[in-house]
Write a structure and sequence with these properties.
Elements lengths: L5 E6 L17 H14 L7 E6 L11 E4 L3 E3 L7 H9 L16
Parallel strand pairs: 1-2
Antiparallel strand pairs: 1-3, 3-4
This protein binds FE2/S2 (inorganic) cluster.
Length: 108
């Protein structure tokens, strides 16, 4: 199996009801994870060429859903299901993180 070109990590962390911190899971990140997997299949990306992994909390919970793309180390915050196609088309396929999604804004 070749080394993956990209690894997309989607925070799917959830917290119990009433927990004071928000979570990406409560903000619909499971659907975002599925949209990445479906989007890669629709684009004919070979299995293993791009990995998509759900994760526990990545840190910036208030800015979730959080998605990180490696090896670029680009962080996307407040990701919506409708953003997934843009990230796949512009970042994963063209190598250009879409500026209008404010990549890395969570760290500024
Ligand atoms: S719950 Fe997703 S970043 Fe913390």
């Amino acid at each position: 199996m070749p080394k993956p070109k990209y690894h997309i990590i989607v925070c799917t962390n959830s917290r119990p009801p009433g927990h004071p911190k928000p979570s990406c899971g409560a903000a619909g990140s499971q659907n975002i994870l599925m949209a990445f997997n479906m989007g890669l299949m629709e684009r004919g990306v070979q299995p293993g060429e791009v990995l998509v992994t759900g994760s526990t909390c990545l840190g910036p919970c208030e800015q979730g859903p959080t998605v990180v793309v490696y090896p670029d180390g680009v962080w996307y915050s407040k990701v919506k299901e409708s953003d997934v196609a843009t990230i796949l088309d512009e970042h994963i396929q063209k190598g250009q993180p879409p500026a209008h999604l404010n990549p890395d804004a969570v760290w500024s």
